[in-house]
Automatic annotation (TrEMBL):
InterPro entries: DHBP_synth_RibB-like_a/b_dom, Sua5-like_dom, SUA5_domain. Residues 14-201 form the YrdC-like domain. Signal peptide: none annotated. This is L-threonylcarbamoyladenylate synthase. It comes from the Bacteria. Its EC number is 2.7.7.87. SUPFAM superfamilies: YrdC/RibB (SSF55821). GO terms for molecular function: L-threonylcarbamoyladenylate synthase. Keywords: Nucleotidyltransferase, Transferase. PANTHER family: DHBP SYNTHASE RIBB-LIKE ALPHA/BETA DOMAIN-CONTAINING PROTEIN, THREONYLCARBAMOYL-AMP SYNTHASE.
């Protein structure tokens, strides 16, 4: 059964964040809030956890396109090819924020991302995922939680999310109702921003 942790974004309880970190380091899966929708996350360096994430999404891991959640832009060079100064300035002016930026990947990606030519990078404007990544010491893999309802595309109620994913994840972070609009996906591989999916963020 998933453990529900009520963590408040204005003053995240350090002991509860530490419990999340321990779970991630032990290969666990978490559900966490962001500046857009609630999302599933795990340790990007734990291949078994990544496989579980793919199974939940009914995808093969080598085909899955999980975003990488960072707490700032300092991890970019770990995962992406060198980027132009203009692109970096563009990223800096829009992050943290409700965007997923597609960038060219380098050859140092974690095992689960091997052979991916591009990678989606997110820096949410939300204290909880930022603090998790900061304390973990490296980014986490992430994918949005979709709703079964045809009208409401994304699940917003953490209690209902916890019921649905009770036996699939280890921790559900309840931070109140989430948004029901996902991030705007922007492709920057050509150097010029191209909107792939319009979401919450405005370019």
């Amino acid at each position: 059964m998933a453990k529900i942790l009520r963590i408040y974004p204005d003053n995240p309880q350090e002991n509860l964040i530490n419990e999340v970190i321990k779970t991630l380091n032990n290969g666990g899966l978490i559900i966490y809030p962001s500046d857009t929708v609630y999302a599933l996350g795990c340790n990007i360096f734990d291949i078994k956890a990544m496989e579980k994430l793919a199974q939940i999404k009914k995808q093969k891991l080598d085909k899955a396109k999980f975003s990488i959640i960072c707490n700032d832009l300092s991890h970019l060079s770990d995962f992406t090819r060198p980027i132009d100064t203009s692109v970096f300035r563009f990223l800096k002016s829009h992050l943290p924020g409700p965007f997923t930026f597609i960038l060219e990947a380098n050859k140092s990606l974690p095992l689960a991302y091997k052979n991916h030519k591009t990678i989606g990078i997110r820096v949410p404007d939300h204290s909880i995922p930022q603090l998790i990544v900061e304390k973990l010491g490296h980014p986490i893999a992430s994918t949005s939680i979709k709703d079964d309802d045809e009208i409401i595309e994304y699940s917003t109620d953490p209690e209902l999310i916890a019921e649905k994913y009770d036996h699939l994840v280890d921790i559900v972070i309840d931070s109140g109702y989430g948004d029901n609009m996902a991030s705007t996906i922007v492709d920057l591989t050509s150097g010029e921003p191209e909107i792939i999916r319009q979401g919450k963020g405005e370019i």
